[in-house]
Amino acid sequence: xxxxxxxxxxxxxxxxxxxxxxxxxxxxxxxxxxxxxxxxxxxxxxxxxxxxxxxxxxxxxxxxxxxxxxxxxxxxxxxxxxxxxxxxxxxxxxxxxxxxxxxxxxxxxxxxxxxxxxxxxxxxxxxxxxxxxxxxxxxxxxxxxxx
Length: 147
Fold this sequence. Notes:
Shape: elongated
Oligomer: single chain
Helix content: over 70%
Number of helices: 4
């Protein structure tokens, strides 16, 4: 197994850390809406609060599961979900902040989302894009050598 196919111990530790952060935030949204903690700068219905909490708790469960995996191929599907979800959240936050004049408190959520996105983008670049580019370059060299 090549180094790009392995989900390394530092990567698993980052996944576990992401799971812990998501667990805390998800529990806050899911179980504490009646206490009105300062988790969201605008009022939202309790059911939506719990829905957001459930999504974040699902992300926590996925991150904890990823922390147990040693093979990138088994991690890729859930990591792809995290990339799509995190990217959509980032774009939605930017849209609300820059065009709709949302509360500047939403910058906290944007700045919270970006590090996770950077880690997941880095994982995909390292595990998928770099090996594909290397294989493509090796094929070109082989093709040129055969000419």
